[in-house]
Description:
By secondary structure, the chain is mainly alpha-helical. It is 72% helix and 0% strand. The longest helix is centred in the last third of the chain and has 18 residues, at 72-89.
Amino acid sequence: xxxxxxxxxxxxxxxxxxxxxxxxxxxxxxxxxxxxxxxxxxxxxxxxxxxxxxxxxxxxxxxxxxxxxxxxxxxxxxxxxxxxxxxxxx
Length: 90
């Protein structure tokens, strides 16, 4: 019961800003995955998906990975903004 109370209090302290930072870190992690070194040996490329398999969970994850890789420049800008806000606000 104590563990549930501790987890609940931690979730209450985690605000919307912290949640957005976590999403940004997750997007950064997906954006740096190398297709040739990491994704292709495991069969996680867009070329290996057939037309009907794009709606599967694996297809959706592959689409998310490629979307994050495509959006690298906006991710860099968002990272700079987050760093500046954290730098000035503490």
